[in-house]
Write a structure and sequence with these properties.
binds adenosine-5'-[phenylalaninyl-phosphate], 342 residues, three-stranded antiparallel beta sheet, alpha+beta
Length: 342
């Protein structure tokens, strides 16, 4: 093949290859292979030596034209690849952050999550830290550490899901976090611990086997039941969007002494009496009490120096009350018509 023919076929071959290259990396490599110092063009031009001067001029001119043409083809291809990359990025990554938030796509916060957010918000403003409750926990944390010994009938109060062979249980109460909080903090302690809990219960309009609680704990010198009352009144007033009062009745839980059931004045009739509070003016809402000395001791805290209160609020029941939901099952039911109302 003559030099001129070799040049022509290099040109044709290169032009069609360049048109097919789709990445900048390949383009750089191929450019070196053709136009580089030891590239194919240089290789062909080594044959110039054997030509006459006149032939050299003719072929040399032709070679320069081909070099320019290929160079331009490489540059043009590079621009096209860059543009394609930009277009691809725009198509896949573009987000208009200036578009106003709209609910028309149907997205919104689940009522239980909203109640949890509101509870967290008011407690954070009161200086509490928010922890997450374990869903799988030990028999020790769920029961022993909170003063519920193996033989205690209270263990049967909360029908437990036992995890076979492991000694672990599905948390029946967020109180299973009390020991951990006491052990990993030094007073003053102010903590809330929202979480999902599980009980092997028959389901009805007010009982689920999977529901949400939020545990609250305060431990410091001189903590008394008045601190508990103030804290719960502040939280409930915030959740109901109006001032509510609380009253306390004796209640039994092994991890508190004294134990109380905290009732809220009915936020719907302001305590006058209505259908929701069954004409009593009060709604039973939060079991609570002063932390039992045994629980403090088990958590490494001296009950002679420190005292504390704890409560365990049922978030599903609170959400039912707040949003007028009459069946607890709706919260875990993927019923779009129900969920759309929030
Ligand atoms: C407890 O779980 C205690 N750990 C609460 C506590 C904490 C007391 C700290 C004292 C100090 P109880 O079993 O009553 O208590 O449950 C607390 C709340 O969870 C109830 O008031 C109720 O709102 C909710 N709850 C209990 N069982 C169910 C259920 N099956 N379905 C939905 N909510 C429930």
């Amino acid at each position: 093949m003559s030099l001129a023919d070799s040049l022509s076929s290099l040109r044709a071959e290169s032009l069609s290859a360049i048109a097919m290259l789709s990445s900048e990396e390949w383009l750089v490599d191929y450019r070196n292979e053709i136009l580089g110092k030891n590239g194919k063009l240089t290789e062909i031009l080594k044959g110039l030596k054997s030509l006459s001067d006149e032939e050299k001029r003719g072929v040399g001119k032709h070679a320069n034209e081909i070099r320019d043409e290929l160079s331009a083809a490489f540059d043009d291809r590079k621009t096209r690849i860059e543009l394609a990359d930009i277009e691809r990025a725009i198509a896949s990554e573009y987000a208009d952050v200036t578009i106003p938030y709209s609910r028309t796509d149907g997205s919104h916060v689940h009522p239980l999550a909203r109640v949890r957010d509101e509870i967290e918000d008011v407690f954070v403003r009161m200086g509490f830290r928010v922890y997450e409750s374990d869903e799988v926990t030990t028999e020790y944390a769920n029961f022993d550490a909170v003063n519920v010994p193996a033989t205690h009938p209270a263990r049967d109060m909360q029908d437990t899901f036992w995890l076979e062979g492991s000694g672990n249980v599905l948390a029946t109460q967020t109180s299973c976090m009390q020991n951990h909080i006491l052990r990993t903090n030094t007073p003053p302690i102010r903590a809330i611990i929202p979480g999902r809990v599980f009980r092997n219960e028959a389901i009805d309009a007010t009982h689920e086997n999977t529901f949400y609680q939020v545990e609250g704990m305060v431990v410091d010198r001189g903590i008394h039941i008045g601190h508990l009352k103030y804290t719960l009144e502040t939280m409930l007033s915030e959740i109901f969007g109006k001032p509510v009062r609380t009253r306390m009745r004796p209640g039994f839980f092994p991890f508190v002494e004294p134990g109380v059931e905290v009732d809220s004045s009915c936020p719907f009739c302001d305590g006058v009496g209505c259908r929701i509070c069954k004409q009593s003016g009060w709604i039973e809402l939060v079991p609570a009490g002063l932390i039992h000395p045994n629980v403090l001791r088990e958590g490494g805290i001296d009950p002679e120096v420190y005292s504390g209160f704890a409560f365990g609020l049922g978030m599903n029941r609170l959400a039912m009350l707040k949003y007028g939901v009459d069946n607890i099952r709706l919260f875990l039911d993927p019923d779009i018509d129900f969920l759309r109302q929030f």
